[in-house]
Amino acid sequence: MPTSDTLERISHIRTRAQLFIIDELARRGIEDVVPSHGVVLAYLYRNKGPLPVTSLVLALRRPKSTITKTTDSLESGGYLSKTPNPGDGRSYLVELTPRGKEFYSVFMDISERLEERLFAGLSAEDRQTFSRLLRVLEENLD
């Protein structure tokens, strides 16, 4: 039986971070993006498309149904486009639209503000240690 509140704290931090993102988006009048979209947008910002949906599933380690739902929502909002994959008629390629590319500055601003708030009071060494420990925790679950 666990004796520490570590998992509860991790859950609380995640919830608070999501609320921070929701508030920041609302403050900017953006209502068609939610925190769960961030991981897909970040991947597309780093990896210029078009990319097959399967590459997002593998890289982000999310169920295909989750990635499909997220990309459908982002497509509806005009942030990305989906086109049939000419190399595989059963799949789609996704890439950022001009609106999705323009959203990058908002995405980065919110991310930087969250990171500043989250890590306030921690030294650079503490941040590096924390990042290393998170990698270990993540690997333990793989």
UniProtKB/TrEMBL annotation:
Signal peptide: none annotated. Transmembrane segments: none annotated. It comes from the Bacteria. InterPro entries: HTH_MarR-typ, MarR/SlyA-like, Tscrpt_reg_MarR-type_CS, WH-like_DNA-bd_sf, WH_DNA-bd_sf. GO terms for molecular function: DNA binding; DNA-binding transcription factor activity. Residues 3-139 form the HTH marR-type domain. GO terms for biological process: response to stress. The keyword Nucleotide-binding does not apply. Keywords: DNA-binding, Transcription, Transcription regulation. This is MarR family transcriptional regulator.
